[in-house]
Design a protein that fits this description.
This protein has a six-stranded parallel β-sheet. The protein has a four-stranded antiparallel β-sheet with strand order 2-3-1-4, with helices on both faces. It is α/β, with parallel strands linked by helices. It is elongated, with a radius of gyration of 33 Å. It binds NADP nicotinamide-adenine-dinucleotide phosphate. InterPro entries: 4pyrrol_synth_GluRdtase, 4pyrrol_synth_GluRdtase_dimer, 4pyrrol_synth_GluRdtase_N, GluRdtase_CS, GluRdtase_dimer_dom_sf, GluRdtase_N_sf, NAD(P)-bd_dom_sf, Shikm_DH/Glu-tRNA_Rdtase. Pathway: Porphyrin-containing compound metabolism; protoporphyrin-IX biosynthesis; 5-aminolevulinate from L-glutamyl-tRNA(Glu): step 1/2.
């Protein structure tokens, strides 16, 4: 047990660390407004700016007039010239009101962020059931929720994972802080829970941490019963329902599809889901273990007691393929209700308590789970029964007297035997959860690499468009010089020539932007190439695209 609690503490500590790290990020205040700190760009909070910012871009910014990153420094000679220009700009800045400056710095800030994957959630670990049930969104409403979320100014893609244990929203946010604020306000509006209360119980995870969390969820590592399978089915359902929904976009659907394969991989490679972890399932598992495999389908099963535990035993027996059983109970009502629930799967024969010994005589396995405070089976009740059998007694106080175990042809397992099995299985699952973390680390890297590879697409498009603009301009100049009366054939030849030169020149850079695994180039090399090309040709891909997207969204309204 010491091992298990140690492992549990490690897992819990890792999770808490993620939460506390994120809680140090600027967040919406309880009133829903952002703190001043949240509005300021990191460069503005730092006493010294990032020296890596390149001169080329700085000059372009300075030419363009006021930008808040005026403090960009450099050790190179031309920084002196720029400092003079910067001072002029600073004079202009100081003439603006503080509010104006804040607004400008804020808009500048968010266009510099890369779109992020953010998980905003409340789960069984962070929020009480009263909150979770108000936040829950039924499956039929998921497409509407995705559409509403994507209609928010800073949200581009979305998915909703709403189960009885968690309400988690995954988004691609064009700005982390504004995105979180908008989603939290949306959650407040749909649930009627004040923003402050949601903030108190929610967790926020960004990019790698969000990816990792979803992979843990789909693997059952965030579930109360480690490795349980229901959550994987629920993650699959998110993908099924999301198909064709516009806001369930490439990044988020990619994330959820990857989470499904991680969930499957973890279960297959670690067999974390093996081994019963509840008393009732352990009772059934133990019974089947004691029977020869060939007898599983034909063994005569008797369940004594049809309360909560009896019902669970019946459920696990049905899940293991049992098609017929006898249930003894004081009253018939509960048995009738269980029979109704499983009417398509199993034949349940009810017998009153007075028939208990005759039923036991005809059973191979007897499960006892009543609230009787005196034993129902004693040595003298069992000793004359023909054949061998075993009892699985999950009652406390016990329904089967310990003296019964003295009989040659009878074995009795009680709740302590089962608890030992359960504890061993739980410990085993914790060990497997540690193995699963290694798989999840590997898969998180793979997913991030895939996401990064999507980044080169805008650069490819922009570089081609940039080159095409130059080609067309130069072609036009050339044709103008050649006069109006040049034959079509010559025009086409010149056009082809310009295209040929362009394609040949672009071939190399395009090859170096490709990361489809067709050559040995690593992803980091490709990304370095991408950043170099962005710098060289001033493509400013991310900024421009984010800016365009935000503008397009706000202007639609
Ligand atoms: N609940 C748990 O998590 C849990 C876990 C491990 C072990 N257990 C043990 O499992 C046993 C059953 O628990 P439960 O949660 O299923 O209780 P429950 O839902 O209250 O059901 C009690 C069952 O016992 C029957 N019963 C009550 N008094 C009886 C008596 N004097 N003689 C014969 N049958 C009697 C009831 O029959 P009627 O339907 O006719 O009332 C009913 O089938 C208890 O000993 C409990 O300690 C429970």
């Amino acid at each position: 047990m010491a091992v298990s609690s140690g492992l549990a503490t490690t897992l819990a500590a890792a999770k808490m660390e993620a939460f506390s790290l994120n809680s140090s990020l600027p967040q919406a205040s309880s009133s829903g407004s952002m703190s001043l700190r949240a509005y300021l760009a990191p460069s503005q909070l730092r006493p010294f700016p990032n020296p890596a910012r390149n001169n080329f871009r700085r000059r372009a910014m300075l030419k363009g007039g006021l930008r808040c990153e005026v403090a960009a420094s450099s050790s190179s000679g031309d920084a002196v010239v720029e400092t003079a220009e910067i001072n002029i700009d600073l004079d202009r800045v100081s003439s603006l009101s503080a509010l104006e400056q804040l607004k400008i710095s804020a808009s500048d800030r968010y266009t510099k962020e890369r779109a992020s994957i953010v998980a905003i959630g409340l789960s069984i670990h962070t929020a009480p059931v009263e909150m979770r049930e108000k936040l829950a969104i039924p499956e039929a409403e998921w497409p509407r929720a995705i559409a509403e979320l994507c209609n928010l100014n800073h949200i581009e893609e979305a998915a909703v994972l709403s189960t009885c244990n968690r309400m988690e929203i995954y988004v691609v946010a064009l700005s982390q802080h504004r995105g979180v604020k908008e989603v939290t306000e949306w959650m407040s509006k749909t649930s009627g829970i004040p923003v402050a209360e949601i903030c108190e119980h929610r967790f926020l995870l960004y990019n790698n941490d969000a990816t990792r969390h979803l992979f843990e969820v789909s693997s059952g590592l965030d579930s109360l019963v480690l490795g349980e399978g229901q959550i994987l089915a629920q993650v699959k359902q998110v993908v099924k329902v999301g198909q064709g929904v516009v806001g369930f976009g490439r990044n988020i659907s990619g994330l959820f599809k990857h989470a499904i394969s991680v969930g499957k991989r973890v279960r297959t490679e670690t067999s974390i889901a093996a081994g019963a972890v509840s008393v009732s399932s352990a009772a059934v598992e133990l019974a089947l273990m004691k029977l020869p495999e060939s007898a599983h389908a034909t063994a005569r099963m008797l369940v004594v007691g049809a309360g909560k535990m009896g019902k669970l035993v019946i459920k696990h027996l049905v899940a293991k393929g049992c098609t017929k059983m006898v249930v003894v109970n004081r009253s018939e009502e509960r048995v009738a209700a269980i029979r109704e629930e499983h009417k398509d799967d199993v034949e349940i024969i009810y017998r009153p308590l007075t028939d208990m010994f005759s039923c036991a005589a005809e059973a191979d396995v007897i499960f006892t789970s009543t609230a009787s405070d005196v034993p129902l089976f004693l040595k003298e009740d069992v000793k004359d029964l023909e054949g061998s059998r075993f009892f699985v007694d999950i009652s406390v106080p016990r329904n089967v007297g310990s003296c019964v175990n003295d009989l040659e042809n009878v074995r009795v397992f009680n709740v302590d035997d089962l608890k030992e099995v359960v504890a061993a299985n739980k410990e085993d699952r914790l060990r497997k959860a540690m193995e699963a973390q290694e798989i999840i680390t590997e898969e998180t890297k793979q997913f991030e690499a895939w996401r990064d590879s999507l980044e080169t697409v805008p650069t490819i498009k922009k570089l081609r468009a940039y080159a095409e603009r130059i080609r067309l301009a130069e072609l036009e100049k050339c044709l103008a010089k050649m006069g109006d009366d040049i034959p079509k054939k010559t025009r086409r030849a010149v056009d082809d020539l310009s295209r040929g030169i362009l394609n040949k020149l672009l071939h190399g850079p395009m090859q170096h932007l490709r990361c489809d695994g067709s050559d040995s180039r690593t992803l980091s090399e490709t990304l370095e190439n991408m950043h170099a090309l962005n710098r060289m040709f001033s493509l400013e891909t991310e900024v421009a695209i984010l800016e365009q997207k935000i503008r397009a969204k706000t202007s639609q309204k």
